[in-house]
Structure formats: C-alpha cells, structure tokens
Amino acid sequence: MSIVKSPARRRRAPEIRRQNPEAVRQDILTVATAEFAENGFSGARVDEIAARTRTSKRMIYYYFGDKEGLFVAVLEAAYARIREIESGLDLAGLPPMEAMRRLAEFTFTYQNDNPDFVRLVMVENIHRGSHLARSAKIQALNVSVLQTLRETYERGVADGVFRPGLDIIDIHMTMSALAFFNVSNRSTFSLIFKHNMGSRTALTRRRQAVAETVLGYLRR
After folding, report:
1. Do residues 156 and 162 make contact, with C-beta atoms less than 8 angstroms apart?
2. Phi-psi region of 133 (alpha: psi -120 to 50; beta: other; left: phi over 0)
3. pLDDT tens digits for 102-128?
4. Per DSSP, what are the bridge partners of residue 219?
5. Do 102 and 94 touch, CB atoms closer than 8 A?
6. Read out DSSP for 142-211?
7. Which of 215, 214, 195 is nearest to 203 (CA)?
C-alpha cells in the first residue's frame, strides 16, 4: 500500500533540500552582527534577525542554541575575520620597523572600516566578558596576533632597532587602544571638539600618528 504524503510535508521537503546549511548559518551571522552592534546584546531581537534572514527563530536556535550562543558565535566570527586578514600581511618578510608600522596601520584602518567590530567589543565589555567566557575558541583565535607581535618585536630587538624588555601584551594593548578610540569615541569627541574624525584627511593624519606613536614606544 502506498503512503500519501501530506501537502505540508510535500512543501517542506523541497525547501529543506534547497537549503545550504552553511550559507544559512553565515547569513544569520551577518544579520546578527549588525543587530547586536546596533542594539547591544540586551536590545537585539532574535525575531528581528529571523525576519531579516527570512528564516525562523526556531531555525536560529537550531544552529546556535539560544540568543547567548548566537552572540558568542558573532563575537568568534568577528575576531576570526581580523586575525585571518592579519595573518596575510606577510610581516615576516618585512624589516621589523616596517612590519610594525604595517600592523599598526592595518589595525587602525580595519577598525575604522569595520565599526561593528568595535561596537561588538564595547557591548561585550559592558557585559564584563561574560559571553566570551563561554567560548572555547576565542583565546585560540587571538594567539596568532601575539605570536606575530612577539616574532616581529624579537627580530627588532636582535637588529638593535627596538628597545628590549617590553611586554608583548603592552605592545598589543597600545596598538589596539590607539585604533579603537577613533571609532569608540568618534561621536562624543567630534561633537565636543568640533573635529570631524571620520574625514579622509583626519583618518590619514590619525593613522600616521598612531603608527608613529607605536614606533616611538618601540624604538631603541
């Protein structure tokens, strides 16, 4: 005896077959990144993300578990992207001073071109890192930038162009902080001091200043 499929089942099956699970997951992450960056963790709405991805809240939870799981995945993807691009800078093929300049300028440019990354980090700091604490990947993702800094710095010390005794975390913090401020404080600083921090001229001048500040800190 043949089994007759219900109309609902006949409608769902082709849809499921057409779906690319990884494409669906990436689409959700892209939309969720913008939603969390704009509204913070507390203000972001999974229903809104579902509507903008033409999927369902149930599907989002299928991929990410819950809202916190989705936010963790967004943070992991954001850090993975910047680290992946950093790894392609080929700093090992450059003299130490030039390599550090390139990394400082890249950090500044990337954060200004990707303000959602800065906003996501700010959101997570408001929550005292509680979501990143759930991530098994986040520390591993950020090992690469410290290793790159360490190798470049040690080459510079060996060549006599960098002063010895500096801490790699301090170097990374200085570089990141100088780049971060231009995005995190742009609205307030621009209004208070009547200074357009987002103009091409201002960004070029500030990028150079950030690089020179970092190199001045490192120079022997």
Report:
1. yes
2. alpha
3. 999 999 999 999 999 999 999 999 999
4. 162
5. yes
6. THHHHHHHHHHHHHHHHHTSB-S---HHHHHHHHHHHHHHHHHTHHHHHHHHT--TTSHHHHHHHHHHHH
7. 195
How far are the Cα atoms of 129, 193, 212 from residue 187, in angstroms, in the given order?
A: 24, 10, 24
- pLDDT at 17 exceeding the cut of 50: no
The rounded distance, in Å, linking the Cα atoms of 18 and 14 is 6
If you search the block for the tokens 């098994």, which residue do you land on? 136
Q: Say how far apart CA 180 and CA 121 lie, in whole Å.
A: 10
Residues paired with residue 162 on neighbouring β-strands, in sequence order:
219
Closest CA to 133 of 219, 180, 72, 80: 72
Q: Which residue has the tokens 């990141």?
A: 176
Which residue from 69, 185, 173 is spatially nearest to 118, judged by alpha carbons? 185
Contact indicator for 36, 44 with CB cutoff of 8 Å: yes
Cβ contact 91:103 at 8 Å: yes
Q: What pTM value is reported for the model? A: 0.87
CA proximity to 184, closest of 119, 127, 105, 125: 119
Q: Check: CATH 1.10.150.910 for 7-218?
A: no
Give the span between the Cα atoms of 65 and 96, in whole angstroms. 44
